Sequence to fold (580 residues):
Amino acid sequence: MTELLQYEFMRRALIAAVLVGLVTPVIGTFLVQRRLALLGDGIGHVALTGVALGLMTSTSPVVTAAVVATLGAVLMELVRVRTRTSGDVALALLFYGGIAGGVLLIGLTPGASNATLTSFLFGSVSTVAEEDIWVVGVLAVGVLAILAIFGRELFVLCQDEEVARAHGLPVRFLSILLAVTAALTVVIAMRVVGVLMVSALMIVPVAAAQQLSRSFRVTMGLAVLIGLLSSVGGLTTAFYSDLAPGATIVLLALAVYCVAVVAGGVLRRATKGHGVAPPSGDPTDTMLQTDRGKVTP
Amino acid sequence: MSDQFSGARTNAPETPPAFQAIDAHAAYDGVPVLNGVDLRIPAGQTMAVLGPNGSGKSTLMRAMLGIVPLTSGEIRIHGTPLRRFRDWKRIGYVPQRLTAGGAVPATVHEIVASGQVARRRRLSLSTKADRAAVEDALAAVDLSDRAGDAVRELSGGQQQRVLIARALAGRPDTFVMDEPMAGVDAENQRALARAIARLREQGSTVVLVLHELGPLENVIERAVVLEHGRPIHDGAPPEATGECARPGHEHQHPHPDPNDPDPRVASTDVNAEIVRLEVPHRD
Fold:
């Protein structure tokens, strides 16, 4: 680890990896609960157009990606609400528009090459500049602050949108807030794992944590631990074994998921005897034993 | 509307009605579901909305809470037009659901505590009173010992009780429950009936969408029967002269014997109901 820290670029890379590992699973938990696991993926595609715009105009690609991804997220949320029936098709159009626009614009940029494109598609954590770290740091604080302030309302929204409305919550505002927060998170994670794998860090740690938890809070906490382990562990492994950092991080997260599935199965068998009751399956055996039906308001 | 049902039981005459629908029209994808409903629910009343599948009874409840927009007409909650109504902590809503969980695991306690979202300030920690309200709500549906369990590990009837506890946790005085008895076995139905009777004694307004009165027969003060998006009966609960003799009651599926504790029959019932509610006017 000390050898790692001797290099300026690795110190910056590690800071970026910690921020990514910390923030992505938190927003990912809400997205998974809302069954929008692929939203991050879509925003990632759109973010590439933002990156290209940054390169073309010689401004920070992280900043332009943040702006374009945010606009894309708002647009996606509006499309999702307006066109109930063909929502997924409309989103797909946006995804492909985003990635095609990005590829086209990068091709038009003097000095940008296929290597530039690849570094944004699949991540290039070792080329993170100091100003990038500042932008990413500010975004990370912003995302965590938004989730701390609106977490309770977002929990209700993601759990059951109809109930959120019956509580008088500003459902449209919260939906857009969640999408924008996801967009900012995509930009945070973009440099580390690339726009094509950005969603993996939002979803895979949560999927792993779900196997081992029965509560929302614990799932989120475990997901952050798994996210940090994957991003820092993956970066370190990639450094010593000369592997692609983004891919190593994602594969490490997937490995943790596989371990969690097995461990979760063993855990449930140990605590339940005959496994967990299916969500809406045959409830007779658990119900007759545990429902005493006493109601005393 | 007859006078005997418009007077509030526990409130002064000047108290505005808990809910008021004025010529309410609503539609799903252009298909009309509510065709001019006028309804006044006085504060403190325990009433049921009955009707066949696709009659619009669930839509009416959801329109009264702003979940479904009206195409024309007006809704007032406690005297305030729906659009300007802000006192949402007075409302406790129990949606029609087969399960209480989302995609991420959540404990019974987490779900029940989330029912306080309308009364808690942002960034505030839970107070002693908040925690006590959650404990009371769990006790009211007899799930105190399951507070730390994942909701998805519970049976269908227990998950329904979690949803009711969530509504109770916000300490509202106005309840809207959409088929709370669906998928619940006979013993739990009687237990829920006692809980609703207790709410009535406390002076709460309770509006229930029901497929049949069942064990709530003695708790319900007034029943409105909808058919094709219009009330066709408003008054005393329909007499229980055999299941099929009730107004507007159309049977497409076998009913579980009320004495049969097997909840699987009831669950199938719910499935049929939910699918049908999404497709208005299939009857």
Notes: The domain at 3-106+173-278 of chain B is CATH 3.40.50.300 (Rossmann fold).
